[in-house]
Amino acid sequence: MKLQRTFILTLVCLFTLGLGIVSATEPEKIYPSPVRDVMATTGEIIAVDGDKVTVKGDGNYPVATVIVTDKTLLIDGKDGDLKGDRALKKGRKVTAYYSSKMTRSYPPQAEGFAIVFGKNNEKQGKYMHVEKVTPSENGESVRLLNSNRDIIVTVSKDVYEDYQNIKEGDRIMAWYSIMTMSLPGQTNATKVIVLP
């Protein structure tokens, strides 16, 4: 009986110590898991009805109706210039960025963050919300984690002179080409515009 008690006590101690070692070696989570904050559909405008623009193509939803408000930005995808309401025409190639808070209708309807005009390719800027800004160790650049937590864009002073003034919550257009296949994907910006 005494031998069994000693054996069980020894096993409990070893098990407890083993858990401490395992939990101590678990890597610290640097970035939170990806989320869907900014949704996107890339394709063609198939309908414009007042303040509602319906886009059909590829993305989070194959067809989505974006509600254009005074906060929705209409942006040229090549140079980042802002456009007026007249640019919203049936047949135009766009990428619509919209809220994940949407109706359960078909097509789903959501408030639009931005509508970027032009064919979606590597020459087109990508719209994003900045969730986290991390300055580099040498102070020559900042790393921006988007609000979907799936892309980190490095912005240097050569690309955007006021890179140190980019802050959490900013809306930006970023141009980049090559991205790592890690999660979050990492890339270096070739051009950045901080949007109003």
Query: Could you name the CATH topology of the largest domain?
Result: OB fold (Dihydrolipoamide Acetyltransferase, E2P)
Q: Under the CATH scheme, which class of the largest domain?
A: Mainly Beta
Radius of gyration: 23 Å
Share of residues in helices? 10-25%
The main sheet comes to:
6 strands, mixed
Under the CATH scheme, the architecture of the largest domain is Beta Barrel
Strand content: 35-45%
What's the average pLDDT?
A: 89
Q: Largest sheet, order of strands side by side? A: 11-9-8-7-10-12
Q: How many runs of DSSP E, i.e. beta strands?
A: 12
CATH superfamily of the largest domain: Nucleic acid-binding proteins
Helix-strand category: mainly beta
What's the gist of this structure?
This is DUF5666 domain-containing protein. With 196 residues, this protein is mainly beta. It is 12% helix and 43% strand.
Explained architecture:
The chain has one helix and twelve strands, in the order αββββββββββββ. It has a six-stranded mixed β-sheet, with no helix packed on it. A five-stranded mixed beta barrel has the order 1-2-3-6-5. 12% of the residues lie in helices and 43% in strands. The model has no long low-confidence stretch (mean pLDDT 89). The chain has two domains: 38-121, OB fold (Dihydrolipoamide Acetyltransferase, E2P) (Beta Barrel), CATH 2.40.50.140; 127-195, OB fold (Dihydrolipoamide Acetyltransferase, E2P). It starts with a helix and ends with a strand. The longest helix has 24 residues, at 2-25.
